[in-house]
């Protein structure tokens, strides 16, 4: 069992939640999301993100609109759909529960 | 003039140079195949292409450049990730552990002491870097190899800068794929060109068939040669560094011991003096050293995947300094050769008193079998050959034959005369020496000394163990080798030198002895058998009666 695999899987699991979290604070285009995830060291390369965004969009959790950019081609601006907002809130609960559970289990008993 | 290729990404035109285009094309192709399984692969590719266009656009603006180069494409691959990164692993039950060559050598900037080489190696092999450091330190203390290896690796291994590289540094799978890639890249390119230009499809089919066999063989040979080449380069570096180090007598670097003749500062100074020749030798070896050093760094950098921005400059300066270095060495050695042109011999006779001698020799204390040793402005040269011959005269004598070379005859003669060879006779004891000395300035110019003891018939001589190193093929009646003559008393007879206290058994060598014993045993067995047969016959006769 490789530690790197487990780490990657853990990161992947929270990645969707984090994308929804970023978008819950405001609309953003792909490179914005990438920059923030990168600075948090959640992703390593951008390639991972594109299939994920498309999948979330296909699941109707995200919407996008085209916006002109002065730095190259038009960009996709992503925002949460109503469904996505509900999804995000539910994930938030799950995350908090999980976080508590992990905290309780792994912290040293007093 | 460089060819550029135009491509259209998300509606924007970019000019790529040929190398960049090749790399970009392969990259995009692999990304597309990786995304082929996704349901909306087309859309993702469009997104990715738009992103690439954005990055190219930004970089062109920043650099004020018109053409996308290799470094831009490599930046794309670094930011977007290897094609495997595009596969959404959460869909698959078993995540593909990203392919073969994930693990790469990097220098580890986070845990470095000097250049992060040791901690990088540690990360690669999953070993605590402390052990690697200890190994390097040991190599450094005993020879200079540790130092040069470190420098080469430092130059050749890239530093892990991005998180991706830091992960790769600890990735998995150790293989030689990277070397192979080095050659496949070139092969791929030429074979596709062949297909394009091939007019006759049948001919090109055959050509390609043969070509692929050949390319496999060549690839194999190529990898093999590359490894051999790197090995030779390393040996050359060590050897040249050894010569360089020994001209300075650098501790840990003078690991070249040319058959015991040149060692350390003494040997180099004794031959090259301390003038321009020694300087030329030092500079020459150092310059010659650069070519294999640079070649090895460039080769390893390719394997380890480090971008050397100035590899052309490296190879040019390497070759240039190699040539200059060789010229310097040849000049130095060539001018040296003229110093050996003429040869002169001087002979001294010393009359000895008495007719029985006990021969001993002074041995250099720090004797490691070297020819030279500079001490107190004197050059000690261990090049003495001792022989014993018969003389018709009634008194024993010692003949000292000094020989030396020089640029001209008078120089050679002057050298031959400036020998100092201490001998002393105290009663029966005749003290010789293992070495002779010459003034340091006269340098080593082929000086040698033949010492001959001339004995009248009837004189005796005892050979002490201490003369072992100077004995030179002393003829004797019993034909005993020099080494076995030591520790015995010898007498000059009309037939020659003869041993007077050697027991006969010593002349047999082990093989002869064994054969003798075997022969005796066989004879005894035969005798016993014959006796037995006789007894049986007699027994029969007795029974018959």
Question: Could you describe the 3D structure shown?
Answer:
The complex is a heterodimer of chains A (110) and B (545). Chain A is an alpha+beta fold and 110 residues long. Chain A has a single domain, classed as Winged helix-like DNA-binding domain superfamily/Winged helix DNA-binding domain (Arc Repressor Mutant, subunit A), CATH 1.10.10. In chain A, 61% of the residues lie in helices and 13% in strands. Chain A has 4 helices and 3 strands; from the N terminus they run H-E-H-H-E-E-H. A 3-stranded antiparallel β-sheet of chain A has the order 1-3-2. In chain A, strand 2 (62-67) and strand 3 form a beta hairpin. Chain A is globular, with a radius of gyration of 16 Å. Chain B is of the alpha/beta class. Chain B has 4 domains: 4-98, no CATH class; 176-336, no CATH class; 342-506, no CATH class; 517-545. In chain B, strands 10-11-5-14-15-16 form a 6-stranded mixed β-sheet, with no helix packed on it. Chain B has a 4-stranded mixed β-sheet with strand order 4-9-13-8, covered by helices on one side. A 3-stranded mixed β-sheet of chain B has the order 1-2-3. In chain B, strand 1 (4-9) and strand 2 (12-17) form a beta hairpin. In chain B, helix 4 packs across helix 5 (129-142), helix 5 (129-142) packs across helix 6 and helix 9 packs across helix 10 (264-272). Residues 90-101, 172-176, 185-196 and 257-264 of chain B have low confidence and may be disordered. Chain A binds chain B through residues 2, 4-5, 8-9, 12-13, 30-31, 41, 44-48, 50-55, 58, 69, 71-76, and chain B through 9-12, 31, 35, 38-40, 43-44, 47-48, 50-51, 53-54, 56-58, 61, 78-83, 85-90, 95, 97, 162-164, 167, 170-172.
